[in-house]
Amino acid sequence: MKMNIKQLFAALALVAFGGTVSASELIINTDTSDPAPKKAFEDLIEGFKAENPDIEVTWNLFDHEGYKTSIRNFLTADAPDVANWYAGNRMLPYVNAGLFEPINDLWESEGLTESLKSAQSSMTIDGQIWGVPYTYYQWGVYYRKDIFEDLGIAVPTNWDEFQQAGATLIENGVTPITIGTKYLWTAAGVFDYINLRTNGYDFHMSLALGEIPWTDDRVRATMNNWKDIVEAGFFLENHAAYTWQEALAPMVNGEAAMYVMGNFSVAPLREAGLTDDQLGFFQFPTITPGVPVAEEAPTDTVHIPANAKNKENARKFLAYIARADVQTQINATLGQLPINSGSEVADDKFLKAGFEMLSGAEGGIAQFFDRDAPAEFAAEAMQGFQEFMVKPDRLDDILERLEKARQRIYQ
Amino acid sequence: MRLFGLSQRTLAPWLFLAPGVFIFLIYVIIPIFQSISISFYAWDGLGEKTYIGLQNYVELADDDAFYTSLKNNVIWLVLYLLAIPAGLFIALFLNQNVWGIRLYKSLFFFPFVISQVVVGLVFSWFYDPSNGLMNLLLNGLGFDSIPVLADERYVTYGIIVAGLWPQTAYCMILYLTGLNAVNPEQIEAGRLDNAKGWKMLWYVVLPQLKPATFISVVVTVIGALRSFDLVSIMTKGGPWGSSRVLGYYMYEKAFSEYGFRMGYGAAIAVVLFLIMIVYISYFLYKMYRDEKGY
């Protein structure tokens, strides 16, 4: 068969711009590359397809770490119709640049202002709502229940007991806390909790918003608490060489007994062979008595890029993912908590414990350091935390450096 | 034939050069000026640009992380040159005719063929503090593990060693081709004059390898200055930024997960460019001089 030039171009155009002719296309980009999130999105998209057989869904799955840099390119250059991201300050640059579409209309028409009310404030910037939250999860201390029981350690509820528990573990040759700080953010989780427990939620948020100098005595109090356990050898040796996934191994092998982490760590720990009898969860212990208990619970979200081509279909998809039954199902697979108040929390001891803990968090719920603080400062601070965890005696240098960064970044 | 009053002979070279010149302009020359102009702005890469004059450079002058990167770049530059003598000796060693020599040559050349990303991963596993080969060996000999990539004292050297592996292979191949061109009569003449061993190498062989040495220095220096892949794969600039080089720092500030400072990144790029230009002008000057035959 011979093609003339015109036909050739038509064929090429069809390849390049494929679906723009038929309106029923939906392109979804997500970073859900770990096994459980991947499965959850597979099911989610299958479910959506079953209800909307006329829509052709294309799903681009990105590597979790790589997505954080590629999102900037595809939002400007080649926008999908739906992209997942995170709530709070983390979406601010894209909102400011006009790359996300406000979807107040969808929240109104689908009644989301009622069903997703708990997360509305973290989705709102400048009075507009910028996406749909579909999951959140607690942070806390995951621990080897069997090791604690063998050594006769009770679950610590305050800082003294916590230090005592660690000391006992060290005596028995077990590293108290495993951690991998190669990608820095894991250290921020530890900082968040020690700061929330030492100084409380309001102080923590003011600090993340740059309203308090990093050389403040209250920051020093937090860091000194942290220093106590760092110097006592609580954390895994050479943690700067490992990712958070690599740091799971010592916990699985019984070389380490605790992990300050988000609930997404339960799935890989179970997969590695730990049973629910071996694995437990407790709330991060109290440090300053009387400080209202605040928790850390990051929210994951989906958005419609402003340059999306099939916004109608994207709205359908967002309405679908906001639904109570869908959130119940997706979170059961993710091992996380649904946002929709009509959803059910899966029958899982960690989720039940987390849900209960978060419901009782009278102090407030923080997102996470790199979602509460602006990106640029978060990067500086997390690098400082990593350095501090290896070289605690450089505390003064680090705090001064962060203070200098604060004055520059938040001006 | 004449076109625009120019003879074919004047026109032809320019026509042949045109595609190359065009691409060079688009991808090299214009971006250089764009980078320089962006470095005078505060810009997050998404929204509006704000002109801030030299402020990015003022900040750079007071940025510890910048000096760390600069220092690491110098270490890279110096140590990377080790690839040249190493490549030369492997080439001399392989420059013989025994059975299967082609296989050995290909094996030595192998690291240059595989991607830098793979080299980085292989060395990351090699250095891994708990299961890495290096530390298993050290433990076997009764020493403690050294977390090369998590220790600010060793990390840059650890990455350079990984980089030397493919770079040595590259220099080796350059020298191997150079050795083919060594004139056997001169070797013979040298032998008659009783030159052997080091003297033979230094006074007879090396001068003839001068073109190969020159190219090796060029590619190695450029390789050292644009070192990025290995840093990115092996450490992401860590621990706490102590293995950053200018190229990586620029990327981190402008394009990475938390980087939204195109202007600052561009300022770092300009500094890196200035360092390179010193070297490139020397290189161009020398080429020009050699061409003229002084």
| Shape descriptor of chain B | flat
Radius of gyration of chain B: 24 Å
Write down the oligomeric state: heterodimer
CA-CA gap between termini of chain B: 38 Å
Q: Which structural class fits the helix and strand makeup of chain A?
A: alpha/beta
What is the CATH level 1 assignment of the largest domain in chain B? Mainly Alpha
Average pLDDT confidence of chain B is: 87
Query: What are the secondary-structure elements of chain B, in order, as H or E?
Result: EEHEEHHHHHHHHHHHHH
Our count of helices of chain A gives 20
Number of strands of chain A: 13
Helix content of chain B: over 70%
Largest sheet of chain A: 5 strands, mixed
Structural class by sheet pairing and helices of chain B: mainly alpha
Tally of alpha and pi helices of chain B: 14
Number of domains of chain B: 2
Number of separate strands of chain B: 4
Rg of chain A (C-alpha, Å)? 23 Å
Q: In CATH terms, what is the architecture of the largest domain in chain B?
A: Orthogonal Bundle
Overall tally of domains of chain A:
2
Describe the fold and architecture.
- The complex is a heterodimer of chains A (411) and B (294).
- Chain A is built from 20 helices and 13 strands.
- With 411 residues, chain A is α/β, with parallel strands linked by helices.
- Chain A folds into two domains: 8-133 and 300-357, 3-Layer(aba) Sandwich (D-Maltodextrin-Binding Protein, domain 2); 139-296 and 374-409, Periplasmic binding protein-like II (D-Maltodextrin-Binding Protein, domain 2), CATH 3.40.190.10.
- Chain A has a five-stranded mixed β-sheet, with helices on both faces. In chain A, strands 8-9-7-10 form a four-stranded mixed β-sheet. A two-stranded antiparallel sheet of chain A has the order 4-5.
- In chain A, β4 (124-125) and β5 form a beta hairpin.
- Chain A is globular and about 65 Å long.
- Chain A starts with a helix and ends with a helix.
- Chain B has 294 residues and is mostly helical.
- Chain B has a two-stranded antiparallel ribbon. A two-stranded antiparallel sheet of chain B has the order 3-4.
- In chain B, α3 (64-80) runs parallel beside α8, α3 (64-80) runs antiparallel to α13 (246-254) and α13 (246-254) runs antiparallel to α14.
- Chain B is flat, with a radius of gyration of 24 Å.
- The two termini of chain B are 38 Å apart.
- The mean pLDDT of chain B is 87.
- Chain A binds chain B through residues 65, 68-69, 72, 76, 93-94, 96-99, 181-184, 237-241, 249, 370, 375-376, 378-379, 383-384, 386-387, 390, 401, 408, and chain B through 44-47, 59, 64, 127-130, 145, 147, 149-150, 235-236, 238-241, 252, 255-261.
